[in-house]
Request: fold
Amino acid sequence: MNAPLNHPLPLLDLDVLRTFVAIAETGSFTTAATAVYRTPSAVSMQIKKLEDILGRSVFARDARSVSLTTDGEMLLGYARRLLAINREAVSKFIVPDIVGVVRLGSPDDYGERVLPHVLKRFAQSHPAIAVDVTIDQSINLRRRMDDRALDITLLTNSYKASAIGAEVLLTEPIVWAGAKGGCAHLRDPMPISVWEEGCAWRAGALEALGREGRNYRVAYMSAHTAGQRAAIMSDLAIAPLPRSFLGSDMVALGAKDGLPEIGNYSLAMVVSPEASAPVKSVADHIRATFEVFRETGKF
Reply:
């Protein structure tokens, strides 16, 4: 009786696994294609190749969404480990030996939405650099930069002014956010949720209300967007928020609701003039993150 032939198992392509992980994390072939610098059709071909090798479907697709199958969920853990081992091995040979600490500042709203993405990618490419994050109001972060207590910071700029030496990363409209089906904006005086002086969103909102002569009262104050959302969702108040902050359970209120247009604001980045190599690397990662957002609408 002949012994069975010992055929070697196929090798998984790390580039294909990188695409697979990007799709799993973004829930979109199109967004993942931007992240891995490929066309959507090339990404689809990579996943077909992967599924052909495994003989299993790794994604369940319909017209609106992409989700992992049971086999895809199992593969995701292996894929992340393989990519991590690859990064660790390659970094021993070709990644510049950059070490140090970067002192990074951010307002609360973007610290919550953006920094996790930036720091995750940065840690993968520069594992020897530590990032010390400070979350505070933009006015205080600017003072810290002036005092050289920070190396780099994000700032939400006023709807009328921009910080000196700042690089604008994003400009978008501020809208009146209300609960879907809510009626807070119909009350008189109208309850609003804002933060203290120095908040860029507050300044534009209060000036717009004053210009229109709209009667209002500050019913809720919070320095955190989570607190603002709580006030909105409970229909305690409406609040000025960037349009991209609106969730599916919120609506943007405008002229048809008797509310004035607030205007735009910008998010900017300030980098120390004496920036070291690690600081410049963090700045490049932040720029890349916002470039993806401008193209796809997702971080």
Observations:
- The longest helix spans residues 70-91.
